[in-house]
Write a structure and sequence with these properties.
- The complex is a heterodimer of chains A (299) and B (282).
- Chain A has 14 helices and two strands, in the order H-E-E-H-H-H-H-H-H-H-H-H-H-H-H-H.
- In chain A, 43% of the residues are buried.
- Chain A has one domain: Orthogonal Bundle (MetI-like fold).
- In chain A, a hairpin with a 7-residue loop joins strand 1 and strand 2.
- Chain A has a two-stranded antiparallel sheet with strand order 1-2.
- Chain A is an all-alpha fold and 299 residues long.
- Chain B has 282 residues and is mostly helical.
- Chain B folds into two domains: 63 residues, no CATH class; 202 residues, MetI-like fold (Orthogonal Bundle), CATH 1.10.3720.
- Helix content of chain B is 74%, strand content 0%.
- Chain B has 15 helices and no strands.
- Chain B starts with 10 loop residues before the first helix and ends in a 6-residue tail after the last helix.
- Classes of the chains: A mainly alpha (299), B mainly alpha (282).
- At the A-B interface, helix 1, helix 5, helix 6, helix 8 and helix 10 of A face helix 1, helix 2, helix 5, helix 6 and helix 7 of B.
Chain lengths: 299, 282
């Protein structure tokens, strides 16, 4: 190769990737990156979405601190975050139960995975009817065994837990499929060696199996944490944040402030969104650091 | 294999396992089964309070017939399809290119751009809500399928790029190097070498994005309204408003609305799971 050709090839290798990146990058910058910056900006204004925005500095954020509804939303976000993680051990348990080779097991795996494929809107409707005090199956079963019927979604003290359980249903299915794939790829030699050494049951799971399932666990954590903080559909469908705003989370409260019948408070909504964004950013940075380490390790 | 294969256990364990499987499965799907049962009951059952007794009659054809012939449901389904399919094509096409750029070339900023795509994929929707709605208004794309499609393509490009780039990284590099030495143009390497090799990834990604977009609710209610353009996830609430208290109809409607991704999943199961669990094993 002559040096001229060499330079030509080098140039090509410098320009080409950018040409391939350009369309995707433009779309992404226009619809994702720029709006993030814009939201930060709007959060310093009072704006109804139509007229001229009025600059108010930190006012929106100051108002958040004494906003009771914001506080409730934040607490509910925390409940979601902690309880949603139950999907991980839950999914592992279901995966361990289903990781057998008997007739029809493939169909059973599909059926257990089923809730994840359905839209959360439908999951929300299904569980609203399931919980219904008048005709819901839950209360029908409770009365059959002689218990009092309960109104899960009508009671401010149980409503959030009721919605989280509905959310855990598809999320557990998701974690299950991650673990089933992980279990499929276990190193049989390690497992057999451990068995010969007398390892079994829970100790085997903890010391031999789980370390090998670490990639699956990592992804399960990422998708579950993001899913918990993104919870919106179920709340919107099942309770619209009620009763008395007790089932709101930040994502829903933001939507309510920015776009609902209570008026268009874009600036205040943007401030709530910024808070939610910053909370998520902590986790996103954590994930990126982990991915970066993996990149380093495996080049 | 872990846990110990059931075949190596005693007869009692084997039998109880085979009994527990269907029992737990029915328990797991109970909320869904109850909706399916509702959907074939006659409306009269609900007015007289016969919720869980034997159905007064079986109205499968009648209820589902009304969903398809006497409601806006077919229109909503069509809207969903017209939003979902172009999004899948657009997002997959863009990410084949970005994934190729990030997976094959070494250049300054490669990892930074890659991380930006991943991070963008994780941001809360609400941080985009006000500006994206505003942009859509300004471009005259509010309450149009095009507006929804363009946004979905852009947002899904984050996840799709992550997926494609990681898949392309697993391809044998020698193939590309050899082509370069032969003097094959870069775009031909992309089109004639890489694209045929990433077909499984394209299949997996298409099924996944189809499901994600079909099931999207947030952007559907933020960027559209009314029967003209709203996808089925947004339309189902107006459908339910139309059939207030007619739980047989609402149940049938929900099942119809949920069906397309379910069918997609059962037809393309292998691709779907391969896509969803990419990275779950090393």
């Amino acid at each position: 190769m002559t040096s001229l050709q060499h330079i030509g090839l080098k140039n090509k290798l410098v320009v080409t990737p950018w040409l391939f990146l350009l369309p995707g990058l433009l779309f992404f910058a226009f619809y994702v990156l720029y709006p993030i910056v814009q939201s930060f900006n709007i959060s310093f204004y009072k704006w109804d979405g139509m007229g001229v925005p009025e600059y108010v500095g930190m006012k929106n954020y100051e108002k958040l601190i004494s906003d009771r509804a914001f506080e409730i939303s934040l607490w509910n976000n925390l409940k979601w975050l902690v309880l949603y993680l139950l999907a991980i051990p839950g999914g592992l348990a279901v995966a361990l139960f289903l990781n057998q080779t008997v007739a029809g097991i493939r169909l059973y795996k599909s059926l257990f995975f089923f809730p994840f494929v359905i839209s959360q809107v439908i999951v929300g409707l299904v569980f609203t009817w399931f919980y219904d005090p008048r005709f819901g199956l839950l209360n029908h079963l409770l009365t059959l065994i002689g218990l009092e019927p309960i109104s899960v979604l009508g009671d401010p003290s149980t409503v959030t837990y009721g919605i989280i359980i509905a959310g855990l249903w598809p999320q557990t299915a998701y974690c299950m499929i991650l673990y089933l794939t992980g279990l499929n790829a276990l190193d049989p030699e390690q497992v057999e060696a451990a068995r010969i050494d007398g390892a079994k049951g829970f100790r085997m799971l903890w010391y031999v199996i789980l370390p090998q399932l670490r990639p699956a666990t990592f992804i399960a954590f990422v998708v579950t944490i993001i899913g918990a903080l993104r919870s919106f559909d179920l709340i919107s469908i099942m309770t619209r944040g009620g009763p008395f705003g007790q089932s709101r989370v930040l994502s829903y409260y933001m939507y309510e402030k920015a776009l609902s019948e209570y008026g268009f408070k874009m600036g205040y909504g943007a401030a709530i969104a910024v808070v939610l964004f910053l909370i998520m950013l902590v986790f996103i940075v954590g994930f990126l650091v982990s991915i970066y380490r993996q990149e380093r390790e495996f080049g | 294999m872990f846990p110990t294969p059931i075949q190596h256990r005693g007869r009692g364990t084997q039998i109880s396992y085979k009994i527990m499987l269907p029992v737990l499965c029915i328990g797991w799907l109970l909320p869904l089964i109850s909706v399916a049962v509702f959907s074939i009951k006659p409306g009269a059952d609900f007015t007289v309070g016969n919720y869980w007794g034997v159905p007064g009659s079986f109205e499968l054809m009648e209820n589902y017939g009304r969903v398809f012939l006497a409601s806006d449901m077919p229109r909503y389904l069509l809207n969903s399809l017209l939003v979902t399919v172009p999004t899948v094509i657009g997002a997959v096409a863009l990410s084949c290119m970005t994934g190729f750029a990030l997976g094959v070339y070494k250049f300054k900023g490669n990892l930074l751009i890659f991380f930006m795509f991943i991070a963008g994929n994780f941001v809360p929707f609400q941080i985009l809500l006000v500006p994206v709605r505003d942009l859509s208004f300004d471009m005259g794309l509010y309450n149009t399928k095009t507006g929804l499609v363009l946004f979905h393509i852009a947002f899904q490009t984050g996840f799709c790029t992550f997926f494609m780039r990681n898949f392309i990284r697993t391809l044998p590099r020698e193939l590309i190097e050899a082509a370069r030495v032969e003097g094959v143009a870069e775009w031909r390497i992309f089109w004639f070498i890489v694209i045929p090799l990433v077909k499984p990834a394209i299949a997996a990604l298409s099924v996944l994005i189809f499901t994600f977009i079909w099931n999207d609710y947030f952007w559907a209610i933020v960027l559209t309204q009314g029967v003209e353009h709203a996808p089925v996830t947004a339309g189902i609430t107006s459908f339910n408003g139309q059939y207030r208290a007619a739980y047989n109809m609402m149940s049938a409607g929900s099942i119809v609305a949920a069906l397309p991704p379910v069918l997609m999943f059962f037809m393309m199961q292998r691709h779907f799971i391969a896509g969803l669990t990419l990275g779950a094993v090393k």
